[in-house]
Design goal:
Two copies of one chain form a homodimer.
Chain A lengths: L2 H16 L6 H11 L6 H12 L5 H23 L8 E2 L2 E2 L1 H5 L1 H22 L7 H12 L5 H6 L8 H23 L8 H20 L12 H5 L4 H23 L7 H14 L3 H7 L1
Helix pairs in contact in A: 1-4, 2-6, 3-4, 3-9, 4-6, 4-9, 7-9, 9-10, 10-12, 12-13
């Protein structure tokens, strides 16, 4: 079964398991609205790729970890879109959750997806209980204080911002979780996989910066071109688009180099470089190909 | 060490562990504002009492479970107080989190406390990895879809409300989690402890209803007397205060009767009846004594 099929089936199965006749229907609908139809699923695909490269001896644990990362990502998008943060009307070309269901259900859908994320890890790892603690703790590190995605978003509320911590937490943490949880799900030593996720997270941020600057040419299904308008840091503004593309290629190379010795190292290295190229807007990826 | 000391130390230790110099200070401060100074800590005390009654062979696992339940309770209070829900300016006699820190940090503090709850369970159970999955899944059941506290709050967004499901989920679920997780932390069969938590949760709801009706005489540190004004269901309005008190006593007796055979059954039974009496406002508990 290919990675995307495994991810979509696990996401659906987890949601089906909690969306029963006993529960409130609108909350379940709001959660599904945030999770489907699918986006790029870049983080769960990375998680499964690492789990496979490490031997993939417990596919259910890997599926659970990958789905959990996507649930957490969707939860963070719901809350980031709220009026008190980005006040975004659209997401992936459709109404944001609070526009479609109202703010109360948007807050609760985010909460319930955070919960479902941890629940999905526990369900997936039922055959590997010894791996569960490291999976839960790694997910918590990627999402809470001091360096998870909630902490990353909270830097925007500080009067003085640590830009490195901000980007590592807000964007990098879930990419690092993807590689760390993928390794942990297959019983590998998780921390030696962190660098791969961190470098890919940085590459993703640079690709996002390039897309923002080129927003007149791109159709990303969300408001773009805002970094300049809002005075936000942007690698393509500070380095120029070509400089940012070279930086992205260096990050992808560093990511590929960081892959620890494992059964599937060569395949994963090729995949890493290919995925980094896919991050770029289509016209630029042809220039880089 | 007494139960309250164990709870306060575990809450502090967990917060200290994530509140490092690397993280954003205001988010950590908002989380601490929600957790300290302490409220009644009724749910974590119940959790520890059940863990002790079941033999208490892993105090660290029990402490982690108890603190996790309190973190989750505090998270739900932060989000329930938000302007899009109860729009409460005060909580426990102090400004609510969004009044003290603003809505963005209130949303994120709730999120980060949900995460810290699961993390604290995993830390606590490090010596009992075989118990971890049931602890994580029971906490998720108490908080997400279809019957956890987020689902309970979401019933308020439905056009047609299932009143029984609403109250079981919104108030009962975390009480049930307290007894179920307390048993699981000590290696006992968790589900046979669910009835005790559910009956105590109902008793708590009835006590809250009585307090609401008597709000002119009570000082609870939060707005009261609102059920009549807002047309909300209230046992003391439908049964009268004396009828509601008799109902509460029946619920406490049913809770005490439900306690499964265990080393500490007699002590726990006495504690259960005493705690139910403590739920009442002071003048009423003297009438009932």
């Amino acid at each position: 079964m290919d990675a995307v099929t495994r991810i979509e089936r696990t996401l659906s199965a987890s949601l089906d398991r909690v969306d029963t006749t006993a529960g409130p229907k609108l909350l379940a609908a709001a959660m599904r609205h945030a999770v489907f139809p699918r986006g790029a699923r870049i983080r769960p695909r990375l998680c499964l790729a690492v789990a496979e490269a490490c031997g993939g001896d417990d596919p259910a644990a890997a599926n659970g970890a990958a789905a959990a990362i996507e649930f957490m990502h969707c939860a963070s998008l719901i809350h980031d879109d709220l009026p008190c943060f980005d006040n975004a009307d659209t997401r992936r070309g459709r109404p944001s959750v609070h526009r479609a269901f109202g703010q109360p259900l948007a807050v609760l859908a985010g909460d319930a997806l955070i919960v479902l994320s941890f629940q999905t890890i526990a369900w997936g790892a039922s055959a590997s209980p010894a791996r569960l603690a490291s999976l839960i703790v790694a997910m918590a590190q990627a999402t809470g204080l001091p360096s998870g995605i909630a902490a990353g978003q909270a830097w925007e509320c500080e009067s003085s911002i640590d830009l490195g911590e901000y980007q590592r937490a807000k964007t990098g943490a879930l990419f690092a979780a993807a590689t760390v949880l993928g390794a942990a799900a297959s019983g590998a030593e998780p921390e030696q996989w962190r660098t791969l996720g961190e470098r890919l997270g940085e590459a993703y941020q640079v690709a996002d910066d390039i897309a923002d600057v080129l927003s007149g040419q791109a159709d990303l299904g969300k408001p773009t071109g805002q970094d300049l308008a809002l005075g936000r840091p942007n690698a393509a503004l500070s380095m120029g688009v070509d400089g940012a593309m070279r930086h992205l290629e260096r990050l992808a190379a560093a990511a590929a180099e960081s892959i620890p010795p494992c059964p599937g190292a060569a395949d994963l290295k090729a995949l890493t470089l290919g995925e980094a190229r896919r991050l770029l807007p289509k016209d630029l990826s042809q220039r880089a190909a």
